[in-house]
Amino acid sequence: MHGDDAKTGAEELIQAVSLSLANTLSEWLALLETRHPKTIDLGLDRAEAVRARLGLQPACPIVTVAGTNGKGSVCAYLEAMLSAAGYRVGCYTSPHLLHYNERVRIGRQEASDADLAAAFAAVEAARGDTSLSYFEQGTLAAVWLFQRLKVDVMVLEVGLGGRLDAVNLWDADCAVVTTIDLDHQDYLGPDRERIGFEKAGVFRAGRPAICAEPNPPQSLLDHAARLGARLFEIGQDIRFDIGPEDWACHVGGTGYVRLPHPRMRGRHQYANASAAIAALWSLRERLPVDPDAIRAGLSEARQPGRFQIVGERPRRVLDVAHNPESARSLAANLRELAGGGEVHAVFAMLADKDIAGVVAALDDAVGHWHIAGLNVPRGADAEALAGVLRAAGRAYTAHRDVATAWRSACEAAKPADTIAAFGSFYTVAEIMAVPRENS
What we know:
- The protein is of the alpha/beta class and about 450 residues long.
- It folds into two domains: about 55-110 and about 135-300, UDP-N-acetylmuramoyl-L-alanine:D-glutamate ligase (3-Layer(aba) Sandwich), CATH 3.40.1190.10; about 310-439, Alpha-Beta Complex (Protein-Tyrosine Phosphatase, Chain A), CATH 3.90.190.20.
- The chain is about 40% helix and about 15% strand.
- It has helices at about 5-20, 25-35, 45-55, 70-85, 115-125, 135-150, 185-190, 190-200, 220-225, 270-280, 290-300, 325-335, 355-360, 380-390, 400-410, 425-430; strands spanning about 60-65, 90, 105, 110, 155, 175, 210, 230-235, 240, 245-250, 255-260, 310, 315-320, 345, 370, 395-400, 420.
- Helix 1 (about 5-20) crosses helix 5, helix 3 (about 45-55) packs parallel to helix 6 (about 135-150) and helix 13 packs across helix 14.
- The termini are far apart.
C-alpha cells in the first residue's frame, strides 16, 4: 500500500471507531473513565504495545518532568519560555481542574474537543484488545496529537512516579525531577529512598538530568550514576540568588541575571524556575533560548490553583496543596503575605492522603478550619477530617460540601483576613465552579 493510501485507510479506520464507540470528547471521557478495571495501573508493557502500533516516535526534543510537587510549575515555565523563543510547544500535564482540554496544549492554546476526540479515536483504533487506563490512553492521545500537528518540542509531565508511568515510554532529551516527598506510597514505596528511585526512572544514559530537590535521596544519585546520566543538582550545579528587585540563576558556568521575579508566587517557585532554566541550558545547542525569552517566560508563566489569589478584602487564595511538603510551602506563603488578620482554611482531601501531615504542616498558619467531604472516589468525608482536627485541638466548622464551606468562610472573614482553600485538585475545582458573585 502506498503512503497516501495507508494514510487514508488509517483515517477511515479512526472515523469508523469514532462513529461506533464515541464521537464527542465528553463521550470519550465517559467511556474511558469506566472501562479499565484500575484507575491507577502502573507498568509500560500495555501502553508500549499500542505506542508501537501507532508509530509514535517524535522527531522533536522531549522534556519530561517528574517529582512530588512543582511538576506543573516547571512545565508552565518551560512552555512559556520556549514559546517566547518562537517554538511551537506541545505541553501535556495532569490532572485538570475544570476541563480535560487543560491537559493538552499546542502553541499555548488548549486542544479543541474535536482534536482530542480524533486523538482518542486514533488510539482506540490501534489498541485492539489491549486494555489501557484513562491516563495511558490520554498520554498516547496527547503525543499522537503533538506528532500529527508537528510541534517543535514536547513538554510532558509524569502522572505518578516516573519509572512505570506512561510518559516514560519516550526517551527524554532532558529529564527533570522536582521535589521528592512522601506521597502515593501505596504505589511508589514507603520512604523517600524508594520514591526517589521511582522518579529517577525518567533519567536516560548520557542525557541531561536536572534534580531540583535540595536534599535528593541517595537512590536518585546512585541511579543517575549507574546510568551515566549528566546530572545537574540544585544548590551545586544550579544556583539562584534572590534580590529585592530581581534575581539571578547560574547553571553550568552561565549566569542569567536581572531576571524578573516569577509571576507565580512563593519562594519555592525560584527552584522550579531554575530547574526549567537549567533544562533549557542543557538543550541550548538543539533548542536555543535567549535570556530575553527566559525573562518573558518568567513574567508570563502561570498555573491556576497554585497559590492563586482570586480576591482581596478578604484575600482569597486557591492552592492544590495535598501533601505535607506542599502544605509547608503553602504555610510559608501565607506567612509571607502578612495581612495581619486571621487565616480561614477551606479544607477537603482524598482519604488516601496524609491528612494529619497536612494539618500539622499548617497548624500555626490557620486560625479556623472550614471542612467538607469530597464526593468523589477516594474522597474523605467531613467526619474523617474532623477527627484529625479534634486530635490536633483545632477549631473547625463542618459543612455539607466544599462550595458551602467556601461561602461560609467568605461570610465569616473580616476584610484583613485571608481565606485559603486547599487539600486537593477537586477542592480547588469545586470552588472555581462557584459563581464569582457568590465567592
